[in-house]
Amino acid sequence: MSKDIKALKIYYVYILECSDASYYIGITSNLSKRLYEHNRGVDISSYTYSRKPVQLKWYAEFTDVNLAIEKEKQLKGWSRRKKKALIDKDWEKLIQFSKNYTEFGKGG
């Protein structure tokens, strides 16, 4: 391998389930450190601070930070049902909730 090749930086988009059963979606370059920070309560103003403990439910890896940011924004716009279908790897429901937005609505 050439000396000129740099190691690719990995970015993670992740979904946490909080103690109140809500979901938190974030992006980081160090998933284990970020999960620790969420559970430790480093930032009192963060969404997860008063919702500890949190549990990692899903994540995806990206080598392009712009694609990671795009995915984070996309997931934040999804309904709870659609996020749960992704977490559960229930592809049929994920497709169903994507196609039938007006029937199933954004909630739930």
From TrEMBL:
Q: Which InterPro entries match?
A: GIY-YIG_endonuc (IPR000305), GIY-YIG_endonuc_sf (IPR035901), UPF0213_domain (IPR050190)
Which intervals hold domain GIY-YIG? 9-85
Against Gene3D superfamilies, the record matches this protein to:
GIY-YIG endonuclease
A Pfam family it matches:
GIY-YIG
CDD domains assigned to the protein according to its UniProt record, in alphabetical order = GIY-YIG_UPF0213 (cd10456)
Q: Which organism is it from?
A: Snuella lapsa
Can you name this protein?
GIY-YIG nuclease family protein
Q: Which PROSITE patterns match?
A: GIY_YIG (PS50164)
The record's comment on protein family reads: Belongs to the UPF0213 family.
